[in-house]
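STRUCTURE REQUEST FORM
Protein name: NAD(P)/FAD-dependent oxidoreductase
Source organism: Kribbella capetownensis
Requested output: structure tokens
Priority: standard
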Amino acid sequence: MPQTLAGKTPTGRDVGRGVQEVEVVVIGAGQAGLSAAYHLVRMGFTPYDEVVVLDRNPAPGGAWQHRWDSLTMHDVHGIANLPGVPVPPSASDARANEFVPGYFADYEKRFGLPVVRPVSVESVRKVDGLFEVRTSGDTYRADAVVNATGTWNRPFIPWYPGIESFRGRQLHTADYRGAAEFEGQHVLVVGGGASAVQLLAELSEVASTTWVTRRPPEWRTGEDFNPEYGRKVVAKVEERVRAGLPPRSVVSVTGLHLRPQEQAAFERGVYTRLPMFTRITPTGVEWTDGRRLQVDAILWATGFRADLAHLAPLHLREPSGGIRMDGTQTVVEPRVHLVGYGPSASTIGANRAGFTAARTLRTLLNPAAA
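Status: completed
Returned output:
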């Protein structure tokens, strides 16, 4: 049976047959979900009776608990403070998949956030004016839903001719555990994002590597990332989701930043990039001009997609494939909010989105308290 952080069975308003009634269901307990839950409770929603957070993971930490062991706090691109509690100091060699989940666990406990886990949300549909949230445990009926499921559970691997014929190992960054298992091999890294840059540096210490991307990388210095530039980036992403277009990755807007720990790899030529191949062979890849490359493994650093399949019964998507947004609200269903989506996909953006969603829902559901 799913448990709360305190080890108690969740209550809510039990209306029989495994159905709980609450005002707001938050789906996901990562940065965005915890931020939304914190603000909802602060704005007067009673934990468990009026607001509940459903988390599919067995423990606190969101996607961070699934990151590879070699990812340290020195490697991550910064962790934003959760509202009300700053990130504690960390040693640079602390494992991110232990340090951040520890921070999240302390946060949930400190504020008594109504997290229930492990609970997998199977579908959300509209029934008699309420949202029926069906899960691996109870069913919840709610006036509103805040979706904070992120992307980790939807790794994206593009299809290429011959992909099923490759006799070596193929894996996504979601399945990467460390460079040691590739020692002495030749690894093809596919993708133009920050993870590709980081893992190329790590792998190149023990293996030979080749890097392929669809577009030439656009490198930026640390000085380029100032507040004004950040606002422009958010505006570009927000423009797309307001138009109902699928959000692009942050790197597609910001470009890549080479950090000091990757400088040695840059000087060794690790970031010499080749264009995308046209097909995969049993032993490697092949380009249009007939060039072939034999590799032992293909690491797909090709990103993730928003994990929103459980919202499909609500028909939120536009013909263009995206979800039209107004702030954190979906235009089709204003009582369904997406946080950690589009312009709020960063940890800082997720915090702000959590506050925006909570404030909007307080106005919609409890206008007297607004």
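Reviewer notes: The two ends are 36 Å apart (CA to CA). The first strand starts at residue 3 and ends at 4.
Form closed.
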